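Methods — Computational structure assignment.
A single polypeptide chain was analysed. Its primary sequence is given first, followed by the predicted tertiary structure written as structure tokens.
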Amino acid sequence: MADAKALRTTRLILIPTVITLVVTILRVVGELKHWPTPWVNNAAGGGGALLGISWLPIIFGPYFAMKLAGAGEAPPSNGKAIGYAFGALLVLAAGGALFGGTVKHANFLTLLGLGLLFWSAFVPGMGWKPLGTTLLAYAFAARIPVVIVMYYAITANGGAGLGTHYDRVPPAMAHLGPMQKFIYDGLLIQFTLWIGWTVVSGAIVGTIVNAIANRGKREVIASA
């Protein structure tokens, strides 16, 4: 049973994962070729670029939700599913505030912030387990290639980097060596903040879209 569910999840995320990988590759090429904004953004963080994957969960969240609901894996309660999705957003925001406020002088609160960022990815599954599991699998599939790109970007040219947003770190990390930059900005951030964001944003939009779609179906049945 577990193997069957894993296979179903793999099939469900396959096309979104391929699309996400293509966007990542285009982003790398675009930054190396100095494509204009708003297509890419070479600054640290790379925010606002159209060729980015951070906004894709807003599309794939509803896609996963509707596929799961159509396969008979709808949430027990739409209200509960939406509630846990927004609860996860609060956990994500709390983790981000703790991490951002203490990272310059890292301490226990910094680690707690990272823990909350990562834990936020598991909260939506408490309201709708299949959707939470699917989004979590997609999140790792989306971010692992980014981590690989960041490793090569940060360590390229003897640690000088490639001049892309993948190797440009926030000012608080500018003094670190290449491997330290990769560990903090690559591994830790990608596998906490961005895993959390992918699952939480996808769950919020996905649960809302599913609730609206199901309500419309119930109204048609009721009037028949």
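Note: The CA atoms of residues 135 and 173 lie 30 Å apart.
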